[in-house]
Amino acid sequence: MNSSEYVLLTIFGCGLVTWLSRVLPLVLLQKFRLSPKVTEFLSFVPIVIMAALWFENLFTQRLGHLPTPNWDNIIASVPTFVAAVITKSLLWIVVIGMLSLVVVRHI
Asked: Is the pTM for the entire model greater than 0.85?
């Protein structure tokens, strides 16, 4: 097997695994009813993922050192957090977060 065939098979395999991980839960959950407690628990998953991604970007990690604050992201998070509390709209949160980071980096 030459390298181009190996690359194509790898790309196809990754695509298949990605597709199956999205389609199989959808197909399986159409046949079963989840309890209200499970549904309520799963409704918090996107919030937790967004919070983990946000918190990870507040610090810069270097091997052998303690994490250091990423001040640009911390400062840009303040108006973004205020927008989240006031609007509760993901669109406004993203827009204000992007704009505040642009302003912080250009000052």
From this structure: no
